[in-house]
Amino acid sequence: MVRCDSHSRHTGGVVLLLKKGIEYKVRYNRSIDLNVWCGIIKLKKFDIKWQIGVLYHSPSSSDIEFLNHLDAILSEELESGTNSLLIGDFNINMNVNTATSSKLNEMFSRSAMRQMVNFNTRIAERSQTRIDLLYANADVLSCTNLENHRISDHETISFAFKVSNSNHLRRMIPTMCWKNYSADNLIYLLRNYDFSVLKNMHLNDSVEYINTCLSHCMGLLTSEQDRIVRLRNKWYDHELTEINKLKVQLHSQARRSGEFSEYNTVAKYYKKLIKIKKIKYMEKYIALTSSDRKLMWKHLKQAVNLTEVRDNILTVIVNGKRYETPEDIAQALNSFFVDSISDINREIETLDSGDSVQYTVSTCLKFQEVTVDDIYDDW
Q: Hey, how many other C-beta atoms are within 10 angstroms of the C-beta on 42?
């Protein structure tokens, strides 16, 4: 939870509540002149970078001063090159085209951010205004009004956006802290209970009483803490773990001594070894799934995406045969891909609808074998 509290009982204050386990960094958390309250965080460990902010502008303060404060926040606190989203009660009605509303949109447009809320957010008996706004510089997947979840005189805005193409690289797990536990401490706490009452209790009641005493004592001696756990991939083995430990140790030594040559050598080797481990892991599964063409292609695409270099293939092995010259490699890969697509096409089942006419799925593509010379001729 990130809070920016107000010192007034009547106005101000914002809060950001985050799901347990989400890592973040607070970039901005301030109240300014009882006019604006703002908190901005940057999400960590996601594939797509996002910084999210929440804001409140008091209607009893100056709009001009608010815009000046907001301009400074946008220019100084929002990190460029990152997806940004700012939501809150701006107390500027966007249903009316005024100098203030135009200036607000103009300020955000300089940060490539546009307003996403297209419905009234404060509906009174005689007025309807759009003062709760959401500005973002990337496409928001949805921005809707939760009519059944209204908790004040303002509407509840629900929005969603994409933060990751895959799972977190890390996650938080709850663990028990036994730092204060010992047999002597447990016995000391248990001595505060009167166990003589067990003589007059039924067996089930006695067990429940003892269990309550033990649970209470253990609750005083232990505590639950969140621990960050790095999710290791299957290819991340003991060798990489040990080299990473050495890298961290050398980095600490280098910071003290100012000599980074040994650390740089190990860091480069560690980075190179990671790529090698990934590729070998993928090659293994490509070989194991060669009979399942669809699964094989999935692993093949993952292996190709591990490197940005596409023109340094020196050797390939297809069906147990090695090819080393560029012409032979191109010919072998071409034949392999043609055969693979043809096999996938043959594996598509015929649709059988009983006595009715049978339909077969046919290909609209025809493959033929070509050579490197044929390609050059076409150019």
A: 19
Residues of the chain with CATH 3.60.10.10: 2-160
Contact of 50 with 83, CB cutoff 8 Å: yes
In this predicted model, what pLDDT tens digit does every residue of 319-329 receive, in sequence order? 778 888 878 87
* Dihedral of the alpha carbons of 260, 264, 270, 272, in degrees to the nearest 10: 180
* Tens-digit pLDDT profile for residues 131-173: 999 998 876 667 888 887 777 888 888 888 776 654 444 455 6
Tell me the pTM: 0.46
Q: Please say whether the structural domain 2-160 has been given the CATH code 3.60.10.10.
A: yes
State the SS3 of 70-120: HHHHHHHCCCCCCEEEEEEECCCCCCCCCHHHHHHHHHHHCCCCEECCCCC
> What CA–CA distance (Å, rounded) separates 151 from 135?
22
124: number of Cβ within 10 Å: 9
